[in-house]
Amino acid sequence: MLTEHLTEAERQYYYMDQCHQWVTSQEEKLGRPLTASVITFGCQMNARDSEKLTGILEKIGYTMIDSEKADFVIYNTCTVRENANMRVYGRLGQMKQIKKKNPEMFIALCGCMMQEPEVVEKLKKSYRHVDLIFGTHNIFKFAELVYRRITEGKMVIDIWKDTDQIVEDLPNERKYPFKTGINIMFGCNNFCSYCIVPYVRGRERSRQPEDIIREIEKAVADGVVEVMLLGQNVNSYGKTLEQPLSFAQLLRRICRIDGLERVRFMTSHPKDLSDELIQVMAEEPKICRHLHLPLQSGSSDILKKMNRRYTKEDYLKLVDKLRRACPDISLTTDIIVGFPGETEEDFLETLDVVEKVGYDSAYTFIYSKRTGTPAAVMEDQVPEDVVKDRFNRLLERVQTIAARVCSRHEGTVQDVLVEEVNHQDPSLVTGKMSNNIVVHFKGDASLIGKIVPVHLTSCKNFYYMGESVKNN
Ligand code: SAH
Ligand code: SF4
Ligand code: F3S
Question: Which ligand is nearest to the CA of 192?
């Protein structure tokens, strides 16, 4: 083949070029621009992947819009809980009508849900209006697959079971000019017993530190001041590299990048959070005063069944250590209620940790059975009404505590990175403090992307109203 001697990225640029020629000829034929839309479900990893999809679609020549009435609609799916899947099927059902009005449009599906063979079977059988299906491991081939769809004229399906490949240097289009996510690793090796992610995202693999640093330097040169380092378990970064490097060491190197102001990361698995990392967090002012530390359950018995590999006591000790090293740190978490075999006592242990830690916020989830995971075949699935009751009690506690914890900064002056003009009141701008709490204050669009000292005048449960110190 013509493209054989090229690197993978070069091959993909070749296909972008081929697709671009097709888009141009279509536009001439129709006398209007072709539009595209990327619809994202799931976590920050998916959001980052969608920026890559957007970058490629723009390179191909599509004009990006925010509507499913586009000429190219791609759904980047999530399958972590059952309701994520249901939403995708719902949207696809509606698309059938839309495609009837625009038969030449393309509908594509990618992301975690596509790594499940039953899903692809169902799509093949009942959703014939879909044009292109691919998974998480070959997203770098997007342009090539679009080209195949154009030239073959029928449904294209390409799913890989796993990969050890990381393709660098493809286009990507950042959603915000001043902040961006940066993948530092892909996949997960932890196999928490409820979780489908290791099956759909494959084995853990880390990017080379030089590639990460180069990408961040380039983003900073383009105006980025804040990066979010992304991985399912960032604390095990670097273990599989030929020249191993710890996550803490990587952070030190990233913090040395001139012009970069803030560094965030997620997700941290409590079992791998090292003393070295805590020390770096305490010493490096660029690292944000926020840590997302998923608890999942406060019961050591349930944690064992979840294969989390820490106990309630380990977790509380870790929080203690973090608070001693970084007294002003905000902690947030993920909690699952209704894991198989969870008793009222187990649940009370979770509430106990919630009280003791005092989270700034917590994402609470009802356990969702994922076929193929060990927990799906565990006995003692908890009845729905019991789970609902626990979920409501947990939510109430989490919200009450969050409101109390959040207000501790009232009256202080904090640096706020301005993100946007407020949607409800255009005389205000909205930004985030280092600890990730939202602040609204008087200002205009010229402040977007700037870090501004703001006096926090009043706390409204989970956000602040403030006044810019410079304007006073
Ligand atoms: N890698 C991250 C989490 C990724 S999934 C970590 O280890 O913390 C995001 C969250 O979804 C998890 O923290 C968990 O709380 C929730 N989750 C995962 N599988 C779930 C399931 N089967 N049912 C309900 N919630 C689930
Ligand atoms: Fe899922 Fe556990 Fe991996 Fe997180 S660490 S992605 S919860 S298996
Ligand atoms: Fe969902 Fe995949 Fe993220 S299953 S939570 S989009 S890794």
Answer: 2
Is residue 3 helix, strand or coil?
Answer: coil
Distance 79 CA to ligand 3 centre (A): 6
Predicted confidence pLDDT, tens digits, the chain (472 residues): 566 788 999 999 999 999 999 999 999 999 999 999 999 999 999 999 999 999 999 999 999 999 999 999 999 999 999 999 999 999 999 999 999 999 999 999 999 999 999 999 999 999 999 999 999 999 999 999 999 999 999 999 999 998 888 998 899 899 999 999 999 999 999 999 999 999 999 999 999 999 999 999 999 999 999 999 999 999 999 998 999 999 999 999 999 999 999 999 999 999 999 999 999 999 999 999 999 999 999 999 999 999 999 999 999 999 999 999 999 999 999 999 999 999 999 999 999 999 999 999 999 999 999 999 999 999 999 999 999 999 999 999 999 999 999 999 999 999 999 999 999 999 999 999 999 999 999 999 999 999 999 999 999 989 999 999 975 4
Per DSSP, the three-state class of 322 is helix
What angle, rounded to 10 degrees, do the helices at 344-357 and 312-325 form? 10
Four-residue CA torsion sign, 409, 414, 418, 423: positive
- Closest Cα to residue 169, out of 207, 222, 223? 207
Q: Mutation test of ligand 2: which of 197, 236, 339 has the most ligand atoms closer than 8 Å to its C-beta? A: 197
State pTM to two decimals: 0.95
Residue 162 is encoded by which pair of tokens? Answer: 């796993």
> Residue 212: which of 252, 268, 271 has the closest Cα?
252
| CA 456 – CA 414 distance, rounded (Å) | 7
Closest ligand by atom to 85 CA: 3
Q: What is the DSSP string of 42-111?
A: SSHHHHHHHHHHHHHHHHHTPEE-SSTTSSEEEEEE--SSHHHHHHHHHHHHHHHHHHHHSTT-EEEEEE
For residue 315 the two structure tokens come to: 């977790």
C-alpha span between 171 and 186 (Å, rounded): 18
How far, in Å, CA of 254 to CA of 241, rounded?
17
